[in-house]
Specification:
The protein is α+β, with helices and mostly antiparallel strands. Helices cover 53% and strands 15% of the residues. InterPro entries: EF-hand-dom_pair, EF_hand_dom, GRAM, PH-like_dom_sf, Rab-GAP-TBC_dom, Rab-GAP_TBC_sf.
Length: 1072
């Protein structure tokens, strides 16, 4: 297949590749070890290397290189698994390109031409494959042609899907087609032979998506941007259309705005590969990961309907089998009725059994505990078993190759998770006894082992704990123990009672499958701790301040051992995730996890669930922000900061079993239990007291909570008894939450998260913008409105390059910038930064003075970028951009001249820079020495007075210079002064006062030549001398002090920016 040209070093490549065919420009190579007789040492080594690599990193055995004669750099342009495929590409190159390349004289032109042709072939192949993947390829191909014709976007803007619908303009519906592409949502209508409504909206501008049904618009989709509201209706299937629109917007925003914090699948980071089928697969993958709470790195491989034998029910339970990279997962048809997770590293074999009428197409999965699971009614069983067996063998081989032998030996002192002891086989009687002790101990490193918190009613607690332990042991004997026990409603009821202390650490590790993660990443945490310790950052300072505030009543955190453990966890996390660092409530969560072992989006989802499930409460609180502020700590700390400790860990038990669904259900139950009191409250403060008082009265059977203070009232009138809040048992509260809100499914939560993530990401963008403007506003004098518009232009330029430009270079530059850990810049200052090409595009749109040459404009843009990117990272921040813009439009005359002066001396002016100006003036010719005689004055008095005036100006400027905190500017030499004068002539071209300005600059030039300093044939002049000379000519003063309407310039740039870049990029793709 054709590949996007990727640079390789030919010298190193020859060690791993053998050239089979070659000509002046192309090489066809075969990977060493492929197709060679066995026994050759080099082939064996390369073959072993390719086998060890992950499947994503393996190299195809054949490839074609573009090689420029005399160069050690080549480009991979095609590859294939079979020689026949690569030979077809080779024949096409020799037949269509080889003869054409001989006409090029420049080597760079040859490389550019071939790479452009290859990219064009890839685009054609991609378009054909994209159409073939659709249910109706011909209709999609027709829609694709219309999309390209109507909107004129670059070819890299890929159409994903489209819908027939109406767009409302006022009270009039416009029938047309809604096109969803990788970066935009577009609409086009054609009515009665005339052009109708047409618009293109970037996904990055969408702030909210809603379903509305009111008036004429029934089952409509409302799309809200920061500037406008668009409403669409009359979809054939509104639910499908709304889901795809929300998913496309979510993916685009995560890719463009926050791909670090909200991880995307690798395929989705390549928007050109996205199609409708991939969206469906991605939605299913998100659901499966959430349902079984698998690691985000897992990829869904196979989905198959089947039934599994459930010993506890003595029957086969129908459902769906999902296989990922490292797991086999089963879910019953009714979500939550029965689930099963089998980590592949626990699986010994996957085998087919004899098929019968009672047990059709059975498959037996054996695990390390000598247990087996039977799946039946599997369609395409043979292919599925073969695929799973290959994946299992690869995993087992990898483990055997890379795990140290001493860690693979079973030992009672091994730090491996508890369940591996339970599933190991062949233990002696003594080992069985020791294993049982370890199982009861759970984890020797848990702080609860050494620091147990005593509670009142110890005897009662012990008896209740004993009852719970017996119930759990009975459950283990019936449903299994470890990560692959069957999870049913029964275990949900046990979790609601509270997991016994002796089993809590074990079950938290089991229910979260952290034990598998620990085993597969052995030593990872220790290495993180070693790397992070000793670092001094803002995050570590905040951690140190909060260490002693974490569960201060618990003995574990009144001791240096517990404090040190908490410090290690928080510091290691901040080191691993520098963009997050340390955040509020992390200390509380980490504290509880140490004892035994996404919030903004969920808050937005919780608000919608309140409106849907508790309408009376929502009617009383039209603005749910007050309830959101109260419930924020519920999601940040999983109720740990608002419930008594003994009750809070029961909530964490439910969280590890049910995930975030448990927190949603419990939050709704708390609000539902207090609806009457909340609806009678008069202000937010009273509502806060009601909920706080209710949560303070929550207790357990072992330690019922006795209120320390009278519970809050709901604002009783005079003479009325206050409404009190009674004691509530945490188990009853959790069971009530399950009963009343148990129909809340993982699929529903994931859909809500997808939609509300759009609002949260855009709210984050608004906050980022506010912070950026606040940082910059104190350093510039432009109005807040103009500064805001400038930020929008700056951000849009960055996004346009991500849409259609070479985003890899931008991303690489930004990643490099982050790796530099520049302590002088905040996250806000580094959020959006422009490279040279992006900045030059804005320079052309915003430069206040017309320039008579595009080449000269390009040169000044280059120099300005070099000057602003003074930290040598190759990027310009918004702060630097705003400072430049403010100087041009709001600066004093001397500041503008100072900027022009700096553009004509190093580092802005480089020695290798070619002369960009088309202007050739005899006075400024660089072909002869710079020497001008003094002008003859008719009246000597005028000359004397003029010189005295100039000297006085120099003295005044010298005094101002002493006050200036900036360093003195370097002197300007002859060549630099010539460039400076050419720039001035270019700026004046086309001005209404052009003639007067040309005369004035000629006079100033002569004056500067007279006052410049000549030492050893080197002529130099200072900034102060140039400025003083300019001030002698009123025409020049008027030119630089003439006000320019920045608001109008920004509005004009905003209108041109998007479409000009789109047209330019379209033209570039056509040229290629």
């Amino acid at each position: 297949m054709w590949l996007n040209p990727e640079e390789v070093l030919l010298k190193n490549a020859l060690k791993l590749w053998i050239t089979e065919r070659s000509n002046n420009y192309f090489l066809l190579q075969r990977r060493r070890g492929h197709g060679e007789p066995t026994g050759k040492i080099t082939g064996l080594l390369v073959g072993a290397l390719d086998t060890v690599l992950d499947s994503n990193a393996r190299v195809t055995p054949f490839r074609i290189l573009l090689q420029i004669p005399g160069s050690q750099i080549s480009w991979v342009i095609a590859s294939g698994a079979a020689i026949e495929e690569v030979n077809r590409h080779w024949d096409w190159l020799t037949r269509n390109l080889l003869h054409s390349l001989s006409v090029f004289e420049n080597k760079d032109d040859v490389a550019g031409f071939v790479k452009g042709k290859v990219k064009g072939l890839i685009a054609e192949e991609l378009r054909g494959r994209q159409a073939a993947l659709e249910d109706d390829p011909e209709r999609f191909r027709e829609a694709l042609l219309k999309f390209e014709r109507h909107f004129g976007l670059p070819s890299s803007e890929k159409l994903v899907t489209y819908f027939s619908c109406c767009c409302w303009k006022g009270r009039v519906p416009r029938q047309g087609f809604l096109y969803l592409s990788t970066n935009h949502i577009s609409f086009y209508s054609f009515l009665l032979g005339k052009e109708g409504l047409e618009f293109v909206i970037p996904w990055a501008e969408v702030v909210r998506l809603e379903r509305v049904s009111s008036g004429l618009m029934h089952d409509a989709v409302r799309l809200v941007t920061r500037q406008k509201i668009r409403e669409f209706s009359m979809f054939l299937n509104r639910d499908e259309a709304f889901g795809v629109i929300a998913q496309m917007c979510d993916i685009a925003l995560r890719r463009l705005l926050d791909s670090e914090g909200l991880e995307l699948d690798r395929q989705l980071l390549q928007p050109g590969h996205i199609n409708k089928r991939m969206l469906e697969e991605q939605a299913l993958r998100e659901y499966v990961l959430a349902l079984f709470r698998l690691p985000r790195s897992e990829h869904l491989q196979e989905v198959a309907s089947c039934s599994v034998w459930t010993p506890h029910a003595r029957t086969h339970t129908p459902g769906t089998l999902y296989s990922t990279d490292q797991y086999l997962c089963f879910s019953s048809r009714e979500e939550g009725h029965c689930t099963l997770i089998l980590p592949l590293q626990e699986v010994l074999s996957i085998e087919k059994a004899e098929s019968t009428s009672v047990l059709p197409n059975p498959v037996i999965v054996s695990v390390r505990s000598k247990k087996a699971f039977q799946f039946i009614e599997l369609q395409e069983r043979d292919e599925l078993v073969e695929t799973l067996s290959l994946r299992l063998r690869a995993l087992q081989w990898k483990v055997s190759m890379f795990r140290d032998k001493k860690h693979s030996r079973r030992s009672v002192s091994s730090p491996t998770p508890y369940y591996t002891f339970y599933y190991d086989t062949g233990l002696s009687d003594e080992e069985e006894i020791e294993e049982q002790v370890l199982r009861n101990t759970v984890n020797s490193e848990a702080l609860m082992t050494a620091f147990h918190q005593s509670q009142p009613g110890t005897n009662g607690n012990k008896s209740m704990e004993t009852v719970k332990e017996r119930l759990w042991e009975d459950h283990f004997s019936e449903f299994g123990r470890g990560v692959h026990m069957f999870k049913t409603e029964k275990i949900q009821r046990l979790v609601a009672m509270g997991i016994p202390e002796s089993l809590r650490g074990e079950l938290w590790m089991t229910l979260s499958d952290a034990c598998s993660e620990l085993e597969s990443h052995e030593g990872y945490y220790s290495s993180l701790v070693q790397k992070s310790m000793g670092q001094n950052t803002l995050a570590t300072d905040e951690i140190e301040r909060d260490l002693h505030r974490s569960l201060p009543d618990h003995p574990a955190f009144q001791n240096p051992t517990g404090i040190a453990a908490l410090r290690r966890v928080l510091t290691a996390y901040a080191h691993r995730n520098p963009k997050i660092g340390y955040c509020q409530s992390m200390n509380i969560l980490a504290s509880v996890l140490l004892l035994y072992a996404r919030a903004q989006v969920d808050q937005s989802v919780f608000e919608e669930l309140i409106r849907e499930r508790l309408p009376d409460l929502a009617d009383h609180f039209p603005d749910l922000s007050s309830l959101s502020s109260v419930s924020l700590s519920w999601f940040l700390t999983l109720f740990l900061s608002v419930l008594p400790f003994s009750c809070a860990v029961c909530v964490v038990d439910c969280f590890f079993y049910s995930g975030i669904k448990a927190i949603f259900q419990l939050g709704l139950a708390v609000l539902e239990a207090n609806t009457a009191l909340l609806c009678s409250s008069t202000d937010d403060g009273q509502a806060l007291m009601i909920l706080t008082g209710f949560l303070e009265q929550v207790g357990t059977e072992e330690s019922p909570c006795v209120p320390s203070s009278p519970p809050p009232s709901a604002g009783p009138e005079d003479g009325q008894e206050p409404l009190t809040v009674k004691y509530t048992n945490i188990t009853d509260l959790i069971n009530e939450a399950n009963e009343k809100f148990g129909d809340l499914s993982v699929r529903q939560i994931e859909r809500l998260r997808c939609r509300h993530r759009i609002q949260v990401l855009q709210a984050h963008e608004d906050t980022t913008k506010e912070n950026a403007l606040r940082i910059v506003s104190s350093e510039v004098s432009m109005s807040p409105e103009n500064l805001s518009d400038a930020y929008d232009l700056f951000k849009t330029e960055h996004l346009i390059s991500l849409y259609w430009g070479d985003s890899s270079s931008v991303a690489a530059a930004e990643a490099s910038s982050w790796r530099q850990t520049d302590a002088g810049r905040s996250f806000t200052e580094r959020q959006y930064r422009l490279d040279r090409a992006q900045f030059k595009s804005l320079y052309c749109l915003l430069a206040p003075w017309p320039v008579n040459s595009e080449q000269h404009t390009d040169t000044l843009g280059n120099r300005t970028f070099t000057l602003l990117s003074h930290d040598k990272d190759g990027l310009v921040s918004f702060k630097e951009f705003a400072s430049w813009l403010d100087t041009l439009y709001s600066g004093e005359l001397n500041e503008k001249v100072r900027l022009l002066y700096r553009l004509h001396i190093p580092p802005a002016l480089t020695e290798s820079e070619d002369d960009p100006s088309l202007l050739k003036s005899p006075l400024l010719s660089s072909n002869r020495p710079l020497y001008v005689t003094r002008t003859q004055e008719t009246e000597s008095g005028e000359e004397k007075s003029y010189q005295e005036q100039l000297k006085q100006m120099l003295k005044d400027l010298g005094k101002e210079k002493e006050k200036d905190v900036d360093k003195p500017l370097p002197l300007m030499n002859q060549h630099e002064f010539i460039q400076f004068c050419k720039t001035l002539y270019s700026l004046f071209h086309g001005d209404l006062e052009e003639n007067e300005l040309f005369q004035a600059i000629a006079t100033v030039t002569s004056l500067v030549l007279q006052i410049g300093r000549l030492e050893e044939s080197d002529w130099t002049v200072s900034f102060a001398q140039i400025l003083a000379s300019l001030l002698t000519e009123q025409a020049l003063v008027n030119f630089f002090e003439k006000p320019v309407d920045l608001a109008a310039k920004l509005a004009e740039a905003r209108g041109k920016q998007y479409h000009q870049r789109a047209m330019l990029l379209s033209l570039q793709h056509k040229v290629r």
